[in-house]
Amino acid sequence: MGQILLNGIVKSYGKEVVVKNLDLTVETGEFLTILGPSGCGKTTTLRMVAGLEEPDQGMIKLDDKVVFSRNDGVVVPPEARHLGLIFQSYALWPHMTVAKNITLALKEQKISKSEIADRLKNALEMVQLTGYAERYPSELSGGQQQRVAVARLIALRPKILLMDEPLSNLDAKLRTEMRASLKRLHRDLTATTVYVTHDQIEALTLSDRVIIMNEGRIMQEGSPYDIYHHPANIFVAEFIGDPGINLFEGKIDNGKIKCSDIEIPLPENFAKNKGRLIVGVRPEKIEVSETKKNGWQEVVTGIIQPTGANTIIEVKAGETPITLLQNGFITLPENSKLWINFEHDTLSFFDPETQENLRNNVG
Amino acid sequence: MWVEFMAISAGNNKPKFWSIRNIFYQSYRLKNRPELIIGLVALCFLSFVVLVPLLQIIKDALTFQSYDLAYEPDGVVGEFTLFHLDRVFNQPISAALFYKPLLNSLKMGFAVTVIALSVGFCLAWLMVRTNVYFKGIFGGMLVIPYMMPSWVMAIAWLSLFKNDRIGGSEGLLTYLTGVQAPDWVAYGFFPIVITLALHYYAYAYLLISGALATVDSELEEAGATSGMGKWKRIRVITMPLLMPAIGSAIVLTFIRILGTFGTPALLGLPVRFFTFSTQIYASINARNQGDAFVLALVLIVLAISFIWINSRIIGVRKSYVTMTGKGFRKSESDLGKMRWPVTVLLILFLCITVAMPLILLLWESLTLIPGDYSLSNLTTYFWKGQGDVSLAYGEPGIIHNKGILGALLNSIKLGFAAAIFNGILGLLVGYAVVRGRGDRLSKWLESIAFAPYIFPSIALGAIYIGMFSTSIGPIPALYGTFTILILITVIKNLPFTSRTGIAAILQIHQSLEEAARVQGIGWFRRMLRIIIPLSMSGLVAGMLLTFITAMRELSLIILLISPGNMVLTGLIFSYQEQDMAQHSSAVTLALVLIIITISVIVRVMSRSAGVGRLNVT
Question: Which domains does chain A have, with CATH numbers?
Answer without folding.
Answer: 4-239 (3.40.50.300), 246-359 (2.40.50.140)
